[in-house]
Amino acid sequence: MTLRIGVLASGRGTNLQAILDAAAGGLLPAQVVVVISDRAEAPALGIAKARNVPAFFIDPRGLDRATFELQLADCLDRHRVDLVCLAGFMRVVGKVMLERFESRILNIHPSLLPAFPGLDAQRQAWEHGVKITGCTVHFVDRGVDTGPIILQRAVPVLDEDTPDTLAARILKAEHLAYPEAIRLFAEGRLVREGRRVRVLPPEACRERNL
Ligand code: GRF
Known about the structure:
This protein is of the alpha/beta class. Helix content is 37%, strand content 24%. It has a single domain, classed as Formyl transferase, N-terminal domain (Rossmann fold), CATH 3.40.50.170. The strands form 2 sheets. Strands 3-2-1-4-5-6-7 form a 7-stranded mixed β-sheet, with helices on both faces. It has a two-stranded antiparallel sheet with strand order 8-9. A hairpin with a 2-residue loop joins strand 8 (190-193) and strand 9. The N and C termini lie close together (9 Å). It binds 5-O-phosphono-beta-D-ribofuranosylamine.
């Protein structure tokens, strides 16, 4: 069965692109069926349209969070989305979305969580002087970048790095990590045990007929 993905993005959309590429290349048993942005001018919308993926702007101005999320959730449901992927979506996800898509919302963050949550994580890591940082794909919960971790990729910080060169290196790791995490989800290999997420070996899923 092909997993139906809805992507929420506020910006340039390189992670969206990586997910689309992985799906088109047959690396994911999944398909992006809708892209939604809270910013009319987000390049992510153009990327989706160029691939003939339905793309929508939902204007958050003047709406409280619950009303905005109701519109988001209804649009995702209309497209029969199984999994929601946040890819540079610059909003905290609230109760409406979390209840409608319980355990079915993923996010990617450009640091090794729980270090450097929130905005500008790459610069935070660079300023702190860590030698290794990276990216994290996690389930979304009520907090900011606090949900159960699915997978992480480490990236070295080099002496000559600037926040920008470091962010570019992390971004390359993100483009591998996000499709990989989605593949594990699509294959039914993620088992949540409280905060911990166990990744089942592929054989286990074949045995369970997934
Ligand atoms: C990425 O660094 C992601 O980790 C963070 O927002 C950025 C989105 O970039 N959550 P893009 O729009 O996917 O290029």
